[in-house]
What we know:
Elements: H1 2-11, H2 14-23, H3 27-32, H4 40-47, H5 50-59, H6 74-81, H7 84-93, H8 108-114, H9 118-127, H10 142-148, H11 152-162, H12 166-169, H13 179-185, H14 189-198, H15 213-220, H16 225-242, H17 244-247, H18 257-291, E1 307-315, E2 318-328, H19 334-338, H20 340-365, H21 373-401, H22 407-452
Antiparallel strand pairs: 1-2
Amino acid sequence: MERRLYRAALEGNVPSLLQLLWEDELVLERSLVGSHSDTPLHIAAMLGHSEFVSKILSLKPELACELDSQRSTPLHLAAAKGYADIVKGLLNTCKEACLVSDKYGRNPLQVAAVKGKVEVLEVLVQVEAEAARIVNKSGETVLHMCVKNNKLESLKVLVGMFGGEDEFIDWKDKDENSALHLAAADGQFETVDFLTTHTRADNHSRNLEGFTALDLLAQSTTGTKEKAIADNQTMSKQTRVSSSSRASKFPSGAYNWKKHFKRQNSWLERMWNSLMVVATLTASMAFQAGLNPPGGVWQDKAGDNSTSVPYTVSIFGHDMPENSNITLRAGNTVMGGSSYGVYFTFLVFNTIGFIASLSIIILLISGLPMRRRLFISVLTVIMWIVVTSMALTYAISIEFLTPLEQYLSFKVISFGILAWTGLMTLLVVSHIIRLIVKALRACIKAVTHRRKRFTV
Length: 456
């Protein structure tokens, strides 16, 4: 008899159900303790047999709250298939089923949203709006699920219902990603355009990695980004015209995402190219200065193997003679022999500039995702260090090459360069402090947000 009952459920055969009930009044009761995990109501709801579902609900309404092996109620199955009439009947019988989560942590409203069943979604939101605010174990709301499954129409329905609730729109998952972050990271231009023009979504908010939605969109953009954005702007306008009944619920003041994105991407491109050119130039200068330092090298024209000269240490014009002589061979630097302190200082700053320049070049051509505002800012700070090192190298060279009779002129030049170097140092330190402060604020905001987070 159990087999006949499930055959009737598969076919949606109400007369067969009534015949079975005439033969055994407890046939529906027996289905609850039988070998099948699904009840006849699960099967009928999944297959869309509305008349059969209505009959079972009238005879045994408690079946509406039963769970199958996947912890799904009949409402889950009907919502996934988009049977609005069956959903309404199940909600009238067991409204609490709208808040039940299945094996995957999804309630019927979330199932309808990720399956794109807009009509069912509207019914569920009207009956039990609280189901839309339930978050899963990853801290995701139904908006996150819509974006992950690329269901823009479902997202529009939810925004139409909850568009004025900023906390719902900007809710973040365990990685501090809002729905806007996920849409930008996945390159869903139309979704990004909709969220930024029809809601007050915070497009400056950062996730745990410190990226805004704009940063993530720049990373996910392909060569066809401009056409995609333009098309999405047009489609968004058409959607707003056809959905004028919901437009009154949206806040005014659209955000010009396309203009902002183009400006951001153009700035990153210019900075990337400028850093590559300047780094290449400074690396060449440092390399040449290292092989041919100021004063040149000793030339042994007389055929001697070496030349002995008094050994002095000179740092910025202050000579400190030593008691011993050093042996200079052909090819040794003149600066290193006559003023070792000056030469050592020159070598240190020149090497710093050379290595820093090479580091920038390697990072830019490494293929790593360096075209982000944060990385470009770090490379800019490194470039400041390079330029400062080259300026100090220049000052040391001028000090060595300037005759003692013109020492006053040298002093003026040296003080000017040192003042400029101090300014550059101040800028570098200021930016480092700024980065530290931003990191601390992000950490504090993340901790505060997690404390305020609600769970159901």
